[in-house]
Amino acid sequence: MLEDPSRPPPDDLFMLTTSPERAPDQPEEVTIGFNQGTPVAVNGIFLDAVAILTTLNTIAGRHGVGRIDLVEDRLVGMKSRGVYETPGGTLLYTAHSELEQLILDRRTLAAKDLIAPRYADLVYEGRWWTTEREAYDAFVNVTQERVTGGVTLKLYKGNVTVVSRASEYALYDERFVTFGEDDVYKQSDAAGFIRLYSLPDRVRALRDRELAARAVAPVSSTDDVPVLAASWQD
User: Fold this and answer.
1) Which of 25, 90, 145, 220 has a C-alpha 20 to 30 A away from that of 234?
2) Which domain holds residue 28?
3) What is the CATH number of the domain that holds 49?
4) pLDDT score recorded for residue 106
5) 132-137 contacts at long range (C-beta below 8 A, 24 or more positions apart)
6) Gap between the Cα atoms of 162 and 159, Å rounded
């Protein structure tokens, strides 16, 4: 039955998670604390790595969180169906990603999104003792230096939602996000930024208008044609 992706997995396949339909009718909140990207506490209690995962597995599992049913590609090229349970891992991933979103800048987040699937492939293919992995680790270690804080999640019948997030390193600052007139944000500043940021588009539009004008203008001599071609090549 598991090999047939058109059929749902049997209920007795799952060992760590309650079926969402039979999960508690009341939601539960859990707060995960991080220090430099590493989870260190659950609900304010500091625990080692094994205890954190065990605790989160129990909490998330009773709410049916962390079930994954997918068709994936194996290393050898064939497709297979995989049914996984990762209740604690789902909470850690969700909380950590949310904390990064609060702390890291846009370009660093984008770079992490590029490296993450490469790192996952590296681990999956067993290429751990490689220069590539060491280089990725160096990048990740730098990005995590300021990822310290806490995230509160709400669990309810298989779903996870972010309730709150906080960090002293947050790049989010209420003084800078207002669209009202104040001493920090001046609406007039936006005009110059927009004009500069759109410079390539305005240059292209100007060039298109010039080319269109030349195309409809009468040609006085055949010498004009190679001149236009030469200017385009330049």
Assistant:
1) 220
2) 11-177
3) 3.90.1260.10
4) 95
5) none
6) 10
Determine the distance from the C-alpha atom of residue 47 to the mean position of all C-alpha atoms in its chain, rounded to a whole number. Answer: 26
Total structural domains within the chain: 2
Long-range contacts of 225-228 (CB under 8 A, 24+ apart): none
- What pLDDT is stored for residue 230 in this prediction? 43
| The token pair that represents 67 in the structure block | 């079930």
pTM for this model (two decimals): 0.81
**What size, in residues, is the chain?**
234
DSSP state of 168: T
Task: Please tell me the distance from the alpha carbon of residue 14 to that of residue 44, in angstroms, as a whole number.
Answer: 29
What are 152's strand-pairing partners? 31, 164
Low-confidence ranges of the chain (pLDDT < 50): 225-234
Other beta carbons less than 10 A from residue 48's beta carbon = 9
The H or E element spanning position 34 is strand 28-35
Show the tokens assigned to 113: 């999104």
Shared domain check, 224 and 124: no
d(CA 122, CA 71): 20
Alpha carbon dihedral 154, 92, 12, 80, in 10-degree steps, equals 130
With contact defined as beta carbons under 8 Å apart, do 64 and 18 qualify? yes
